[in-house]
Amino acid sequence: MTKTIPINTDAAPCLICGKTNMASAAVCVDCGAPMAIAHDIIAQKREPQIVSIIGESNVGKTVYLGFLLDMLTQRAGDFEAIPRGAYSVDLQQTVISHMAQRSFPPKTPMEMNQWYWAYYQVFQKYPRPKWVDLLMPDMAGESLAAEVAAPSTFRPIRDLLTRSAGLMLLVDAALAANGSARPDFFAVKMLSYLYSMCGVRGDERIDTPVAIVLCKADYCPECFDHPRRFVQANLTRLWNLCENRLTNVEFFACSVVGSLAYATAPGDDYVVPIPMHTALQGVLEPFEWIVETL
Ligand SMILES: Nc1nc2c(ncn2[C@@H]2O[C@H](COP(=O)(O)OP(=O)(O)OP(=O)(O)O)[C@@H](O)[C@H]2O)c(=O)[nH]1
Ligand SMILES: [Mg+2]
Ligand SMILES: [Zn+2]
Questions:
Q1: How many structural domains comprise the chain?
Q2: From CA 123, how far away is CA 80, in angstroms rounded?
Q3: Which CATH number covers residue 151?
Q4: Which of 58, 112, 257 to mutate to test the pocket of ligand 1 (most atoms within 8 A of CB)?
Q5: Residue 264: beta bridge partners?
Q6: Do residues 119 and 264 share a domain?
Q7: What global pTM score does this model have?
Q8: Do 66 and 13 sit in the same domain of this protein?
Q9: Domain enclosing residue 150, as ranges
Q10: Distance from the first to the final alpha carbon of the chain
Q11: Does the Cβ of 105 fall within 6 Å of ligand 1?
Q12: Ion ligand 3: residue ranges with CB closer than 5 A
């Protein structure tokens, strides 16, 4: 996974697709990833590990990652995190400022050059002190779905996922608890895609650590007690695939809101959820597990 990047002041290779870009380029000409990351990596002289947060659109990836990064920079648990580059702070700022105004952040656009990228140096005190450099992009669920449906249409996503040192697969627990098979099917498609992209053969398994995170667990608090049992009962297809194809998998539940209200504007025929207050539960645990396994 670790690879040294040649130091060259005239040009820099894109971390995601490898394309050599002009030193002045703001985003990669090929994939749209911010070149500031490549320059920071060159300055750092070591390549970060990628942790990808994946899941369907509207599952809660942006909200989750925003709060996680905010907790890390506020020294939650045994962690301390230092953002590399101001662009790394944008995601947590967007999420926190929206939630302070009692609204959820907007949907992530499909275009890669509009995603938030978080590049952090993370220090974990226990069980043994260690520093890890992590790159965590906030991908759009729709881009992921498009790539899974037609592999290699979004090459950068394929590059990101196959190069990831750890994955967090977010699943909508509220939908699953209501009897919808949709989250189960999406998660199975996502893992099957990864399985074929990682080039594993026959009955080999994927070694990359995968944290299955049950999101919106405030709707079904029983997930917090037994996330594993919840998956086994409500997401059976996913459970079976995890058992057969992953060597390193763990199950978690998470929620970011304490109470919700519902509102609509005059003339609108839709209702939007309003987060009345933030109450973080289970946000740090999946991350802690991933960092321990890296
Ligand atoms: N009840 C509850 N709702 C949540 C929670 N987290 C997210 N949501 C809801 O889920 C919606 C989508 O959250 P996002 O983080 O934008 O979802 P996303 O996965 O980034 O979606 P894309 O950007 O389209 O891929 C929010 O607007 C909220 O309505 C949670 O912890 N509890
Ligand atoms: Mg999003
Ligand atoms: Zn690129």
A1: 2
A2: 5
A3: 3.40.50.300
A4: 58
A5: none
A6: yes
A7: 0.92
A8: no
A9: 48-293
A10: 11
A11: yes
A12: 14, 16-17, 19, 28, 30-31, 33
DSSP 126-176: SSS-EEEEEEEEE--HHHHHHHHHSTTTTHHHHHHHHTEEEEEEEEEHHHH
Helix 182-197 to helix 141-149 angle (10° resolution) is: 60
Residues 154 and 278 in one domain: yes
Is the Cβ atom of 108 under 6 angstroms away from ligand 1? yes
165 and 53 co-located in one domain: yes
Ligand 1 nearest-atom number relative to CA 104: 27
Beta-ladder partners of 252? 213
Claim to verify: residue 72 and residue 11 sit in the same structural domain: no
Residues 199 and 149 in one domain: yes
Question: Are 6 and 79 within one domain?
Answer: no
Ligand 1 near 257 CB (within 6 A) = yes
- Are β-strands 249-253 and 255-263 bridged in parallel, bridged antiparallel, or unpaired? unpaired
Nearest atom (ligand 1) to Cα of 140 = 25
Among 104, 169, 190, which residue has the most ligand 1 atoms within 8 Å of its CB, making it the best to mutate? 104
pLDDT at 8: 47
CA distance 253 to 172: 10
pLDDT by 10s per residue, the chain, length 294: 444 444 445 688 888 888 888 888 888 888 888 888 888 887 877 788 999 999 999 999 999 999 999 999 998 888 999 998 888 999 999 999 999 999 999 999 998 889 999 999 999 888 888 889 999 999 999 999 999 999 988 888 998 999 999 999 999 999 999 999 999 999 999 999 998 888 777 778 889 999 999 999 999 999 999 999 999 999 999 999 999 999 999 999 999 998 888 988 888 888 888 898 899 999 999 999 999 998
pLDDT at 9: 53
